Batch of 4 targets.
Target 1
Amino acid sequence: MPFKKLLKSPFNVFRIAPPIPEHYSNKLTYDELVNAESVYGRTIFGPIPAGHQREFFEHRKNIWIWHESWTDVSGQIINQTIRYEVRPTGVFKKAAGDTYRKIEGKELDNFVNAAKTYLKLVKINLYN
């Protein structure tokens, strides 16, 4: 399916955010909801190595964040954050200090699968 058609699809994973149930919306802040959702997002990419922290979540409409941090052998904390922007022309990736670049092929497939899995897990476990 061409990417533009995917964006216009009524089942588009990038534009359908899970609904926030009424009983949550008055009690939890946006940040608390993102933190609750990222609990499921961090599980998508397999086991988290000891000493690592991982987050994957939809920051806002069409903006996705993957973050991982760990302490290296010298004791220095390493942070890696990647921002994905879903645009009508494709999905663009930006790491800290880099410029945006369009992702394609297997990398695009992996991102789409991760986003679909995230939305499914969040919907089933938090909003069902």
Target 2
Amino acid sequence: MPRLVLEVADTKIELPIRCEDTQGTEDACAQSPSLCLGKNDDNDLVAQSAQTSRQHAVIEVRHNDFYLVDRSTNGTYVQTEDEQVTLVHRNSIRLWGAGWISLGQPLAVGSPIHFRQIDRR
């Protein structure tokens, strides 16, 4: 099953795609829970920069892919494996391979959130 791993300092969070497949069809796969990112303590991943919104973004599963959905004032910067940096503002982007996420400010060396998709089949 594919899963997405987020790493921040000493914290590691995984978001799997869970499958309740009894018929051998991809359509039977259930959506996994989402991961919330932001300044509030009730987020799955808490970031305390001044540019981070309380409920900044969410990572969710759609059709067996991982998507970051920005819900913030300042946007989210995402660098994917091809090294392209995209500013996502009140929109979504598919996360693939490995890369970096920066909440509310441009990517810098050592951006706090590293992601990587792992396929286990």
Target 3
Amino acid sequence: MVDLGASSSRFGPTANLQSAARYRGELAQGALRLNRFLIHISQRENREAYLIDEEAAMQAWGLAPSERELVRHRDYAGLLLAGVNIYAIAKSGYVFGATLLEIGAAMRGQSTKEFLAEKGRG
């Protein structure tokens, strides 16, 4: 067995990322209802009902006021920090009319144009 030292793992050196959410079991467990809600509304028949009355749909699922705020404001970074799975966030983009690029840009506090320019594709 190779000793990689304290600052490395078998996947390479560890990274210290600002504003990065470590997706852990307890974080995910706390967002279980919100994860299920976002997956639920990504299905066509549920999406249509959600878009007719967003507030009623969130109330029917018993979302907490803080969870409703995250959904209302399409706060993708906040959803991730609250424990929502990145795949549920990606699926919700379809419901909210956002592409993956737009979600990525929003999570960084940038416009899509700024995000693409920074990535060398704008």
Target 4
Amino acid sequence: MRGACVDIYARPNGLPHARLGMIVSRRVARHAVARNLYKRLMREMFRLRQHELASLDLVARLKAACPRDRFREEFNRLLALCQASQWGRPDAPTPDASTS
């Protein structure tokens, strides 16, 4: 999934939970404080949607610095796209399927 300032790569992982990897290079965010801020924002937004993204490995790559509000909107939009594409997979469980 591609956005203006962040890309998210998703793959099924075969586990019951989602995992997140983050890439924030020094070229994009020069200072460690800025890099850590972007990573903190990614972790928090992922944490809030982690239950919806079960069995996916996600790698988020910041490719351009952008304002926090725009970054949040774009990251959430891309996470929603990852969730939607996950339910479109033939081997993925349906959202209303029970595990009992």
